[in-house]
Design goal:
The protein is mostly beta strands. It is about 10% helix and about 40% strand.
Length: about 300
């Protein structure tokens, strides 16, 4: 924490905040953080008291600042995949040291020819034709992938379907930001799949190595989303993750709009055995299956790392 402001003398009344004539760096304070076993900040008070600002004087009064620092971590559900998304993994809910089975995943390399398609809700024709058009748009690329999330009863409760192939730009071996691959994140409603969100992903070069770029948009209105899936939606998350070391994908819309939504670890191309760990804000989940769309989104990000590998 760095303190910058005006100062007109020593003592506890010596740091002026209103009507100050000049700005200068006064000093910094260091507050230790309490971390849990996963290296995350714990909730609670960090500090309550006075800090001396600047150099301590041998005589006279020292400028001091009273600091009350607290951390309030929003409650979260934690889920862990027990394998890579392509391996149709199981998903466990984790609370403290307790792991409970929660969901299972089924990966398919062809959305329309999946062996489990008979068990899934049928797709609305209005967006199915767009899916077919996108699949036929390129003869070269990674296409037709999907992953379905099932609850413990075996019911399909969410899915991610690749609706735009991951195709390298002409003359390049990378999926370009101008023509990203795309996923629809789907939820079932009255026996059909309803688009809930759209994830675009691509590969971009950088001085420190390539990154997986992404953009996630919420699709609040199905009819509009079906008419123009590429341009509609509320953008909730943009970012990039190193393709070498991986990183974290997240959605946080601020305290005024609901706060933390979700985050997921993303393994790099060279990190074998690194599987998604997903956190979901409890305020966005009324029942366990509500978390399934976030797991489908996490799986889509995980699969995008694979889909955006350089083409031979």
């Amino acid at each position: 924490m760095c303190i910058e402001g005006g100062s007109d003398g020593g003592g506890r009344g010596g740091i002026g905040c209103l009507g100050m004539r000049s700005r200068r760096f006064l000093g910094g304070v260091s507050i230790p953080l309490d971390l849990n076993e996963r290296g995350e900040i714990m909730s609670g008070g960090l500090h309550e008291g006075w800090f001396v600002i600047g150099k301590k004087k041998k005589t006279g009064c020292n400028a001091e600042l009273h600091v009350s620092a607290k951390v309030n971590i929003e409650s979260r559900f934690v889920f862990e995949f027990d394998g890579g998304s392509k391996g149709s993994p199981q998903v466990a809910q984790v609370q403290d040291n307790l792991r409970q089975p929660a969901f299972s995943c089924l990966f398919s390399d062809s959305h329309l020819k999946s062996s489990s398609s008979a068990q899934r809700p049928s797709a609305p024709r209005s967006w199915l034709r767009f899916l077919k058009r996108d699949r036929e748009a390129a003869s070269r690329g990674r296409k037709g992938w999907s992953i379905t999330i099932h609850d413990l009863s075996g019911s399909a409760v969410a899915a991610a379907s690749m609706v735009t192939p991951f195709v390298p730009m002409h003359g390049s071996d990378r999926v370009h930001p101008s023509n990203p691959g795309a996923w629809l994140i789907l939820r079932p409603d009255a026996g059909i799949w309803i688009p809930w969100g759209r994830l675009d992903a691509w590969r971009e070069p950088g001085s420190g190595g390539d990154s997986l770029g992404y953009r996630f948009s919420l699709l609040p209105d199905f009819s509009t989303a079906a008419a123009d899936m590429a341009s509609t939606g509320i953008n909730l998350s943009n970012g990039a993750v190193s393709t070498k070391t991986g990183g974290r994908f997240g959605i946080d819309i601020g305290n005024r709009c609901g706060g933390f939504v979700m985050s997921s670890t993303v393994g790099g191309e060279r990190k074998e055995g690194t599987w998604p760990t997903v956190e979901v804000g409890v305020q966005h989940v009324t029942q366990t299956k509500d978390a399934a769309v976030f797991l489908a989104l996490a799986a889509a990000i995980d699969l995008s790392m694979e889909a955006c590998k350089r083409f031979p």
